[in-house]
Amino acid sequence: MSDPHRYRGACGVEKLDPIKYLRPSKWACEKDGHVPLVCDLKEKAALIETLVGGKGLSLALLQSMQDTRVGCESYARSGGKDSYARISQFQVPAGFCVTTEAFTRQTQTYPLLESAIISLNEVATGQKDLELKTACEMYV
Questions:
Q1: What is the DSSP code (8-state) at residue 32?
Q2: How far apart are the first and last CA of the chain?
């Protein structure tokens, strides 16, 4: 019997383009011609997925929703309580995100790091038949 959770390759679903108006242009985050290596979640640059990655963007969006809760309180009083309850359940602490630029520089500087990441990804997705714990111990 095959494992239903085992990775079997890409699912074949067409990836949709991200909603363009949610992100500022890539140049909005540059300071003196340099892309930041760390980005505060409250900065506008944290809303650029290609800069902070998908998880960083999600945290920044949740942070921005949390920051706009004050404006949602009037909506909640007008009968939109379900919506307000959903927004208020997210508590994102103040934080920062290491940018994709920093990650790229690290993997270019340390090729062994990049090969370890690729190998661990292959194990985690079932492309290599090895226990993840064993694979992690090999690289630590």
A1: T
A2: 34
